[in-house]
Amino acid sequence: MARMTFVMPDGERREVDAPVGDTVLAIAQRNGIAELEGACEGAMACSTCHVIVDKDDYGRLPEPTTEEDDMLDFAYGLSLTSRLGCQIVFTAALDGLVVRVPSERFNALLD
Fold this sequence. Notes:
The protein has 111 residues and is of the alpha+beta class. 16% of the residues lie in helices and 19% in strands. The protein has 3 helices and 5 strands. The protein has helices at residues 24-30, 55-58, 66-72, and strands at residues 3-7, 13-17, 50-53, 82-84, 97-100. It has a 5-stranded mixed β-sheet. β1 (3-7) and β2 form a beta hairpin. The radius of gyration is 12 Å and the shape is globular.
């Protein structure tokens, strides 16, 4: 099985199984990474699954859609490699993906 790593806000690295076809958000939730809330359940209506993709891995991802880019405008700590975890569908080509979990989140559904 493919693997990926979440780098937590405190620097802890959590390497987890990453089933092909699951989103990064679903993988995080299955592995108890509560910091990636996914308040809109993957409907791209919030930014609570914002992750920062490792710069060496970012080029392996498909380009974000305009809708994803628009929703990322609400994310705290936005970077050039920011993505929504609900929009990254894990593939075999992403084996070893590393994403950083930001220390702050903004819930556009509540705030």
